Known about the structure:
Number of helices: 8
Strand content: 15-25%
Structural class: alpha+beta
Largest sheet: 5 strands, mixed
Number of strands: 5
Shape: globular
Distance between the termini: 52 Å
Order of helices and strands: HHHEHHEEHEHEH
Amino acid sequence: MLSENEGFRGNTIAEVNNFKLSECRVELYERDRSDLVIVDEDELNQEVQTNGFVPEAKESFLYDNALIESLSFDHLTCFNPKISPAQPGMNLRVRSLGSGDYERGFLDLLAQLTKVGEISKSDFLKRFNAMKSCQGTYHVTVIEDTTTQEIIGAATLVIEQKFIRGCAKKGIIEEVVVSDRYRGRQLGKLIVATLIEMGKALGCYKVTLNCTDQMIKFYCSLGFTQEEGNANFLQIRM
């Protein structure tokens, strides 16, 4: 029950119940506060202006899509025919991971690459919010088929903060995957090249990745090199 100190003195119950929630500056994505996704009205308006499309209601993005739109592919010669993040192909869109991509099959796509496990929508949103809170670190980028509203390509650029080289930044590309139904359309090259150019734009002194032997030729075609005497990848699986 509302008290008189809460600003509704003299109002009827009906008037209180008709209080316009649209006047609030934030919205809740889920009733469960553990799944909270805050969408600022100004940020939502900016998304519409910079991307030319209206996001799903109450949707948030992992990073500002304007970063992708600022990238130039004019100097790249590895695409035939020419494609870019701005023009990836008919009915395709390159953008940041969105909070609504759970329903668009993002995790199903990752399952074509590696083991994903059982992840609920609540789990997805908690991890999404945790990553978004680390501003400037995680740049999960996706390709969406706008006709089916399905995520058909994805890759991640992680920005690692360094003390070396005058407190420099290093980019790490991980989890590159394109749906098996969309291969042969240069989309793997497109999303990797997008993250390389993004790393440059964000001031990284280098961008690295690990891959299987059979993928070395593919990544070398995009400018990666195997450094002499420094091409060993070691790990401990827990």
